[in-house]
C-alpha cells in the first residue's frame, strides 16, 4: 500500500519493528509514516517471539490507529491490515531462525566501492566517538527515559522490579500467550467474624509456546505457598514474584517449558474480605427485629476475580471451575453450578462442593455467596430457576420468579439454543453497587432491581423486568459467546440492552417498554454528540480504560445501532444471523467482525460494509433535507456539539434512511428506505407531497434537520392534527428540534413554535421529552441565578402543560404508560410549586399518616408525595424516621430521594456525610444522593465542594473510572455554565494526576460546561425577548 518512493524507508522500519512485542509495534507504528504497513503479506517476514505477545484469541483483531494520541478518536481502524499484522505473532518461529532471504532485509552493497581516504576515515572515527560519548552520557543521566524503541529482552533495563526486588519477567498489561488455563480447583474459607478468608487454588494449564515463565493475575492476596508440577512429575516449591502496579504475579524457570506440556500451579493464600463492592466482599443486613446478619458475596466484572483467587483474569482465558466453600452451619453457600455434596470438617465447619462447571467460563463470570437466604423455585425446560433473598423479603420474590421463568423460555426459543446450565439462580444482595451482574447460573442483583412488593406499581415492575431481561440475555451474549477483549464490550452490553427491550415488548407488552427504549436512544444521542465521546470499538490499554468502557456508548448506542440494523433488514434475517452467530461461536471468544460475518452469511449482503462506519468512528450523522419540487436532497455531516472552532470530521456513515409522508405515515407499510452512503443523495417524491418525515419511529441513530420550510410544514401538520404522526415520531421531532437549537442550526423561537401543539398532546413520549428538555433549560437558568428568566420559564412550562396537569388523577393507575406520564407531569408541577399539585400531594401524605400508613400512596406518586412532605421541618424528620424503618426497598429509595431534595443546607451536609460514611444510608446509594442533591439550587454547589474535599475517600470506595465515579462527576458538574466553574473543575481534576485526571468523564464534564456556557451566551438575549 505504500507509495513507491517510500518502499525502502518502510522496509527498514518494518525490520526494526519485527523484534518488538505486539503492543510496541502498535505504539511505534505511525511515528514517522501514517500509512499502514502490511507486514504479513510475505510469509517469509520474520515472526515475533510467541512468548513476547499478549494473548489474543483465534479471531482477534488489533485495532491500529494513526498519527498520535490527539487524533485517535478521529481515525478509523484498519481491520484488514491490522489483522494480518497480528497474524505474525502466532508464527511459532524465533528470531534466530529468520531466513536471510527476507525481502525486508536490506541487501549488502556490491564490494566494488573505492577505498575511502585517510582523512575521511579520521573524521568518521571522531564523529562516531562523539556520538557514542553523548549517548552514554544521556543514558546514564538520572531521570532520562527512553521510550521510542522499548524492546523486551533479558537485560535488566527491560523489566520492572517485583515486590522482593527481583526482576519481574513481564512488562505489559495484557498477559502473554504462552500459557492457557484449562481448569481451576478453588477452595475458599471465609471467616465472617474476622472478615478474612484463606484460599487454595489449583490451576491446570497447557503450554502454547515455549517459555520460561508463567504470568497471571493476583491482587491484595498474600500468597503463603506455591508449588509447581510439570506433566507427571513431582510437585516442587516455587517462588512467586509480584508486580502490584499491574496486579500480576509470575513464576520464572531456568529451563524452557515446551509447547504441549501440561502444568499444575498450586497456590495457598490469605486475604481480607473487601470492604468495597468488588472482589470477595462482605455485606450485612438488619431484619425487621433489628438483628444484624453478615454475609459475603462476589462481584468480579471486569477486573476483580484476581482479588478472590489467583487467575488469568482476562475474558479470553476461559476454563472450567470446581468450587468448594467452607461455612458455619447457620449459613448456606451458592456458586455457578449446583451443589454436589457437603462434608463436615474436623473444625466443625461444613465444606460445600459444587459440580465442575459444564461450560468454559471467563473468570469475571465466576461467583460465590455465603449467606443466610431463602428461596422460591420452579422448573423451566429442565432448568431449576430460583430467586433468593433475605428471609424478611421472601414475599417480594414472586414477580421476579415469574418474569425470569417466562423470559428464559422466550430466549430458549428466540436463540434456538437452550440455556446451558442445569440451574439459574437470581439473588438479591443487600449491599450491591451495580444494578445486577450476569454471573453464569448465579445472577446477583441489587435488592431494588429484583424485589417487588405485592402492591407494586407498573413502573416498579418495569424496572425489575428490564434488569432481569438484560441479565438473562447475557447468559447467551457474554457468557456463552464472550468478547475477546474489553474493546468489544458492546458485543456483551449492547446486545443485552437491545434484547432486554425486544424481549419485554414481546412477552410483557403491558409494561410499555417501547417508551423506555425511545428515551434511552435520546440519551445515547446526547452523549455521543460530544467531542469527548468515543467509537463503539476503541483501544483499551489500562485498567481505568476497561472500567470506562461500561458507559452509554457500549450499552445504549450499541443497542440503538442493533435496532437500526434490525429495522433495515427484511423479515427474520436479523434473528437468523444471531442464531448462526451463537451456533458458530458457542463457548468461544469473538470480535465484532465475527458477528457481521454471521449476519452477512444469512442476509447475503455485506453487513460489515454498513456497520463499519457506525463501529469505528465516534458520533453520528446529521441529515439535512432540502426539497425542490419532486426532488429531495439529503446531505449528511457529523453532528458535533462544540463550544469552539473544532473542525468536524469528514466522516461519512452508511445510513439506512427511513421516511414517510403525508399520504401514508402511521403504519409500518408506509415506511420507505433509502440508503445514504455518500455525502449527499437524492430521492424522488410526487409533487403533491406536503411534508416528509425521516427516521420512522426513530429507529435510526441520527438527527434530521428539515430546513425552515420543512419544519414549518411539519409544525402546521401537527397543529391541525397530532395524529398524522406516530407518538415516537412526534417525540423524535421534539428531540431533534432541541438538539438543533443546541447546535445553533435553529433558533429557540422555532423550538417554541413546535411546542405550540403540545397542549393537545396526550401521549407519554412526546410530553416527557418536551418536559425533560424544558426542565434542563430551567435548571441551567436557575443555577445561573437568572431570576427574571427563571420566573418566566416557570410560567411558560406551567402554562403550556397546565391543562394536562390538572387532568391527572391521584388514585391507582394500572397502565405503565399513564403512570409514567402522570409521574413526569406531577413531579415537574410540584417542583415548580403548582398549587393544584402541591395541595393534592399534601393531602395524600396526610391521609397516609392518619391511616397509620395502611392507605397506600400509588407507587408512581410516592417520590413526589414524600418530596413535598419533606419540604417542612416536621415532614423531613418524619420521612427520615420512615426511611430508617422501611423494609420495602423501592419505597425506601423514594424516601431517600425525598430527603436528598431538601433545600436546607444543614440537612444537605448531613445526608452527604451519612451516605459517604455508610451510616443510616448505604454507601451504594451515593451516586443517587449526589444526583438528587445536585438538582436542587441549594445543593449543587455543596456537592461540588464535597467532591473536592472527599475525593480520596470516594476513590477508595469506588475505583477511578467506575460507573459510580462517572455518575458522581456528571451529576455534580452538568449544570455549571460559567467560566468560574469551568476553571474550578478543570483546576481540580488537573491536580489529581493519576488519581483521576485522565478519565474520559472529566473531559466530558469540561465539554458540557463549555457547551452550557456557549448556549447561555448565545440564547440569553433572545430568551429575554421571547419568554
TrEMBL record:
Primary localization: membrane
Amino-acid positions noted as binding Zn(2+) in the UniProt annotation, renumbered to this chain: 470, 474, 493
Q: Where is this region: Disordered?
A: 1-20, 93-115
Q: Biased composition, Polar residues: where in the chain?
A: 93-105
Family annotation (CDD domains): M1_APN-Q_like
Record's bilayer topology term: Single-pass type II membrane protein
| InterPro entries attached to this UniProt entry | Aminopeptidase_N-like_N (IPR045357), Aminopeptidase_N-like_N_sf (IPR042097), ERAP1-like_C_dom (IPR024571), M1_APN-typ (IPR034016), Peptidase_M1 (IPR001930), Peptidase_M1_aminopeptidases (IPR050344), Peptidase_M1_dom (IPR014782), Peptidase_M4/M1_CTD_sf (IPR027268)
| GO CC terms of this entry | cytoplasm; endomembrane system; extracellular space; plasma membrane
Q: Which family does it belong to?
A: Belongs to the peptidase M1 family.
Q: What gene is it encoded by?
A: LNPEP
| Key words of the record | Aminopeptidase, Glycoprotein, Hydrolase, Membrane, Metal-binding, Metalloprotease, Protease, Signal-anchor, Transmembrane, Transmembrane helix, Zinc
User: What is the active site of this protein?
Assistant: 471
State the SUPFAM superfamilies in the record: Leukotriene A4 hydrolase N-terminal domain, Metalloproteases ('zincins'), catalytic domain
Q: Name one GO biological process term.
A: proteolysis
Q: What is this protein called?
A: Leucyl/cystinyl aminopeptidase
Amino acid at each position: 500500500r505504500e507509495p513507491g518512493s517510500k518502499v525502502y524507508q518502510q522496509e527498514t522500519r518494518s525490520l526494526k519493528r519485527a523484534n518488538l512485542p505486539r503492543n510496541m509495534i502498535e505504539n511505534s507504528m505511525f511515528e514517522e509514516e501514517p500509512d499502514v504497513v502490511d507486514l504479513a503479506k510475505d510469509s517469509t517476514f520474520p515472526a515475533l517471539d510467541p512468548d513476547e505477545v499478549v494473548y489474543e484469541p483465534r479471531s482477534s483483531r488489533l485495532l491500529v490507529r494513526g498519527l498520535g494520541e490527539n487524533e485517535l478518536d478521529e481515525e478509523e481502524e484498519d481491520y484488514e491490515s491490522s489483522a494480518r499484522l497480528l497474524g505474525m505473532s502466532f508464527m511459532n518461529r524465533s528470531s534466530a531462525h529468520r531466513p536471510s532471504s527476507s525481502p525486508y532485509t536490506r541487501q549488502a552493497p556490491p564490494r566494488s566501492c573505492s577505498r575511502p581516504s585517510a582523512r575521511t576515515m579520521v573524521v568518521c572515527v571522531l564523529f562516531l566517538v562523539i556520538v557514542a560519548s553523548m549517548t552514554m552520557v544521556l543514558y546514564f543521566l538520572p531521570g532520562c527515559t527512553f521510550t521510542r524503541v522499548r524492546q523486551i529482552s533479558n537485560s535488566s533495563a527491560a523489566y520492572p522490579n517485583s515486590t522482593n526486588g527481583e526482576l519481574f519477567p513481564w512488562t505489559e498489561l495484557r498477559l502473554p500467550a504462552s500459557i492457557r488455563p484449562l481448569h481451576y480447583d478453588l477452595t475458599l474459607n471465609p471467616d465472617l467474624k474476622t472478615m478474612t478468608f484463606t484460599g487454595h487454588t489449583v490451576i491446570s494449564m497447557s503450554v502454547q509456546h515455549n517459555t520460561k515463565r508463567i504470568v497471571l493475575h493476583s491482587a491484595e492476596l498474600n500468597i503463603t505457598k506455591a508449588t509447581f508440577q510439570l506433566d507427571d512429575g513431582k510437585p516442587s516449591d516455587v517462588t512467586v514474584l509480584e508486580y502490584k502496579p499491574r496486579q500480576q504475579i509470575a513464576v520464572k524457570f531456568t529451563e524452557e517449558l515446551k509447547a504441549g506440556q501440561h502444568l499444575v500451579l498450586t497456590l495457598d493464600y490469605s486475604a481480607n474480605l473487601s470492604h468495597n463492592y468488588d472482589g470477595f466482599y462482605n455485606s450485612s443486613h438488619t431484619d425487621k427485629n433489628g438483628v444484624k446478619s453478615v454475609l459475603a458475596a462476589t462481584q468480579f466484572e471486569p477486573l476483580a476475580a484476581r482479588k478472590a483467587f489467583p487467575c488469568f483474569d482476562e475474558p479470553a482465558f476461559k476454563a472450567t471451575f470446581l468450587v468448594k466453600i467452607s461455612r458455619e452451619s447457620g449459613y448456606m453457600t451458592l456458586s455457578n453450578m449446583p451443589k454436589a455434596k457437603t462434608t463436615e470438617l474436623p473444625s466443625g465447619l461444613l465444606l460445600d462442593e459444587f459440580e465442575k462447571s459444564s461450560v468454559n467460563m471467563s473468570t469475571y463470570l465466576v461467583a460465590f455467596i455465603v449467606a443466610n437466604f431463602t428461596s422460591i423455585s420452579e422448573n423451566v425446560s429442565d432448568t431449576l430457576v430460583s430467586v433468593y433473598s433475605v428471609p424478611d423479603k421472601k414475599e417480594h420474590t414472586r414477580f421476579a420468579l415469574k418474569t425470569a421463568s417466562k423470559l428464559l423460555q422466550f430466549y430458549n426459543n428466540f436463540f434456538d439454543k437452550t440455556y446451558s446450565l442445569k440451574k439459574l439462580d437470581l439473588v438479591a444482595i443487600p449491599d450491591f453497587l451495580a444494578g445486577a451482574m450476569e454471573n453464569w447460573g448465579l445472577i446477583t442483583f441489587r435488592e431494588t432491581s429484583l424485589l417487588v412488593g405485592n402492591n407494586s406499581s407498573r413502573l416498579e415492575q418495569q424496572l425489575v423486568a428490564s434488569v432481569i431481561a438484560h441479565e438473562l440475555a447475557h447468559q447467551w451474549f457474554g457468557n456463552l459467546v464472550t468478547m475477546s477483549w474489553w474493546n468489544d464490550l458492546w458485543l456483551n452490553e449492547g446486545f443485552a440492552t437491545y434484547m432486554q427491550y425486544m424481549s419485554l415488548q414481546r412477552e410483557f407488552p403491558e409494561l410499555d417498554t417501547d417508551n423506555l427504549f425511545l428515551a434511552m436512544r435520546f440519551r445515547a444521542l446526547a452523549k455521543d454528540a460530544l467531542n469527548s465521546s468515543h467509537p463503539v470499538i476503541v483501544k483499551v490499554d489500562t485498567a481505568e480504560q476497561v472500567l470506562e468502557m461500561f458507559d452509554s456508548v457500549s450499552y445504549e448506542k450499541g443497542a440503538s445501532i442493533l435496532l437500526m440494523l434490525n429495522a433495515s433488514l427484511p423479515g427474520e434475517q436479523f434473528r437468523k444471523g444471531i442464531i448462526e452467530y451463537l451456533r458458530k461461536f458457542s463457548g468461544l471468544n469473538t470480535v465484532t467482525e465475527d458477528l457481521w460475518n454471521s449476519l452477512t452469511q444469512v442476509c447475503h449482503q455485506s453487513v460489515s460494509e454498513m456497520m463499519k462506519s457506525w463501529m469505528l468512528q465516534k458520533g453520528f450523522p446529521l441529515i439535512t433535507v432540502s426539497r425542490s419540487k419532486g426532488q429531495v436532497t439529503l446531505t449528511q455531516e457529523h453532528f458535533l456539539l462544540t463550544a469552539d472552532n473544532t473542525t468536524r470530521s469528514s466522516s461519512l456513515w452508511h445510513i439506512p434512511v427511513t421516511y414517510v409522508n403525508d399520504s401514508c405515515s402511521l403504519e409500518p407499510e408506509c415506511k420507505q428506505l433509502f440508503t445514504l452512503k455518500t455525502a449527499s443523495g437524492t430521492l424522488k417524491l410526487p409533487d403533491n407531497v406536503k411534508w416528509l418525515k425521516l427516521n420512522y419511529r426513530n429507529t435510526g441513530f441520527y438527527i434530521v434537520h428539515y430546513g425552515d420550510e420543512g419544519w414549518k410544514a411539519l409544525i402546521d401538520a401537527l397543529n391541525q392534527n397530532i395524529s398524522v404522526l406516530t407518538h415516537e415520531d412526534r417525540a423524535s421531532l421534539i428531540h431533534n428540534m432541541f438538539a438543533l437549537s443546541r447546535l445553533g442550526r435553529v433558533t429557540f423561537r422555532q423550538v417554541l413554535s413546535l411546542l405550540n401543539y403540545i397542549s393537545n398532546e396526550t401521549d407519554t413520549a412526546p410530553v416527557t421529552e418536551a418536559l425533560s428538555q424544558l426542565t434542563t433549560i430551567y435548571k441551567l437558568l436557575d443555577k445561573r441565578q437568572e431570576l427574571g428568566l427563571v420566573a418566566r420559564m416557570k410560567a411558560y412550562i406551567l402554562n403550556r402543560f397546565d391543562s394536562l396537569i390538572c387532568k391527572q388523577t391521584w388514585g391507582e393507575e394500572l397502565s405503565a404508560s399513564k403512570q409514567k406520564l402522570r409521574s413526569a407531569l406531577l413531579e415537574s408541577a410540584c417542583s415548580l410549586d403548582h398549587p393544584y399539585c402541591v395541595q393534592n400531594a399534601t393531602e395524600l401524605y396526610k391521609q397516609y399518616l392518619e391511616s397509620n400508613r395502611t392507605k397506600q400512596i400509588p407507587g408512581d406518586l410516592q417520590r413526589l408525595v414524600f418530596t413535598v412532605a419533606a419540604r417542612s421541618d416536621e415532614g423531613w424528620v418524619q420521612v427520615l424516621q420512615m426511611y430508617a424503618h422501611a423494609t420495602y426497598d423501592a419505597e425506601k429509595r423514594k424516601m431517600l430521594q425525598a430527603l436528598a431534595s431538601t433545600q436546607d443546607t444543614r440537612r444537605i451536609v448531613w445526608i452527604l456525610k451519612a451516605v459517604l460514611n455508610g451510616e443510616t444510608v448505604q454507601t451504594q446509594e451515593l451516586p443517587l444522593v449526589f444526583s438528587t442533591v445536585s438538582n436542587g439550587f441549594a445543593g449543587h454547589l455543596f456537592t461540588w465542594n464535597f467532591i473536592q474535599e472527599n475525593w480520596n475517600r470516594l476513590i477508595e470506595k469506588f475505583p477511578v473510572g467506575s460507573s459510580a465515579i462517572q455518575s458522581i462527576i456528571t451529576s455534580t458538574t452538568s449544570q455549571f455554565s460559567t467560566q468560574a466553574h469551568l476553571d474550578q473543575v478543570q483546576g481540580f481534576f488537573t491536580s489529581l494526576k493519576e488519581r483521576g485526571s485522565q478519565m474520559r468523564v472529566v473531559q466530558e464534564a469540561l465539554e458540557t460546561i463549555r457547551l452550557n456556557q456557549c448556549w447561555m451566551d448565545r440564547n440569553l438575549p433572545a430568551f429575554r425577548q421571547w419568554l
